[in-house]
Amino acid sequence: MKRIFDFICALIGLVLASPILIPVMFLVWIQDWHSPFYIAPRVGKKEKLFRMIKLRSMIVNADKSGVDSTSSNDKRITGVGKFIRKYKLDELTQLWNVLLGDMSLVGPRPNVKRETDLYTLEEKKLLTVKPGITDFSSIVFSDEGDILKDQIDPDIAYNQLIRPGKSMLGIFYIENRSFLLDIKLIFLTIVAIVSKEKALVNLVVILRNCKANSLILQIASRKKKLSPLPPPGANNIVTNREGRVE
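That's the Sugar transferase sequence above. Prediction below.
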């Protein structure tokens, strides 16, 4: 049922989004005369690599800088790219990956191999299901760029402030996933575009009903400033640029 639902919704979504995506693709293309798409290698289910299709929001060859985490004031982001990121248009093109079967509408967000190679044994659970366009963490950390803004090293900041909560929420989704939960998360993802505050309130209710622990509820509420935490399955906070737990 999940695969059929994913396929139908992705097809409808691409058709409905085309009046927005096509003009934006053209704007991306004319700014530097390069492809409006960024084909991003990502790790999927069972650690299988796939090519994720994103609407390009950065300069050409931005990935060659060696920095995986992106802050909102990253100089690699183009003028059109800021608009794309603000309204999450780069996520819409991933509906094509859903059609192909590489991704699902709902599931843990896919990461680059450099990051998955650093996963703890507990975090490896994230690779037992298809990655998705949205999940709990996509709503909670939709402001990832702002969280990393002005950080001396975005990659270290990501591993200390975002990775722990993102992984916890991803694992929690896997342990509690259901068709009804997917519907709720898709709906809240849409709500978050208009009001993240309302989306978070309802998301915390869902987590509480699913018996989430107090730490997950605290992270998901985003009422307190994020503080460094060790990733799930580790005892120590990441302290080096490679994201390794020492």
